[in-house]
Amino acid sequence: MARAAQNWGEKMNYRAIASIALVSAALSGCGVTGASTPDPSLNAKDKEFMSLAPQANVGGEYGRYIVEDPTGAAPGTITVDTYRNFLYFSLPNKKAVRYGVATGRDAAGWTGEATVGKMAEWPRWMPPADMLERWPHLKPTAEAGGLPGGPDNPLGSRALYLFQGDKDTMYRIHGTNEPEKIGQKVSSGCIRMRDIDVIDLYNRVHIGTRVVVADKAF
Fold first, then answer.
1. Which residues are marked as active site?
2. Rounded distance, CA 209 to CA 162, Å?
3. Does one domain contain both 160 and 129?
4. Do residues 131 and 173 touch, judged by C-beta distance below 8 A?
5. For residues 98 and 183, is the Cβ–Cβ distance under 8 A?
6. At how many degrees (to 10) do helices 44-52 and 195-204 cross?
7. Per-residue confidence (pLDDT) for residue 108, from 0 to 100
8. Which of 51, 79, 127, 195 could form a disulfide with 175 if both were Cys (CB 3.0 to 4.6 A apart)?
């Protein structure tokens, strides 16, 4: 009986080890090679609006992780990999926070360097001129002064406005009311993030933060 119990225990240990190995391999195959980070603190408005905002499971690969920094950028730099749909915020000691993002469609993608020229919480959204040409039904929204911030606003919980010098590029890093599209090339050139992720990034940056949007994988 004792020998049988010992054999059973050994089998269970082998199964546990094998299960851990399989999970590790699966996570590695999904590109999850770093440590997950805790969610940022939320204010009362964040909690209220995010409870009403659309939710989606974007998959392990596009979660928020501390990883080895592949960009070589100085700490405090934002680097967007539009090829693989990742955004990196460089930290000291060659580490980075990596976030999953949605980027511009091929015809609408934007690359280049900029700085954060303005920051806003639950920003108002004004449809840009090119969008009004494509979708005239948005003209009443523009004529009303845009859409107030809230859970249905396409800019989501936070927005970082990208400037080149003192000129607004009209591109943003912002939240989204379509979190299921994280990891895809779907935007008109802006960089979309999950609301919880853009809050985390917003808390790390400042006016003047350098932003590099690249068309290559890191």
1. 174, 190
2. 10
3. yes
4. no
5. no
6. 150
7. 58
8. 195
pLDDT tens digit sequence for 153-190: 999 999 999 999 999 999 999 999 999 999 999 887 89
In the chain, the DSSP E strands lie at 35-36, 65-68, 78-81, 86-90, 95-104, 112-121, 158-164, 167-174, 185-187, 191-193, 210-214
pLDDT at 15: 40
Q: Which domain holds residue 81?
A: 35-214
Between β-strands 167-174 and 95-104, what pairing exists: parallel, antiparallel or unpaired? unpaired
Same domain, 191 and 114: yes
* Chain centre to alpha carbon of residue 126: 21
d(C-alpha 126, C-alpha 9), whole Å: 63
Q: Which of 199, 208, 197 is nearest to 98 (CA)?
A: 197
Number of domains into which the chain is organized = 2
Q: pLDDT (tens digit, 9 = 90+) per residue, 34-47?
A: 788 999 999 999 99
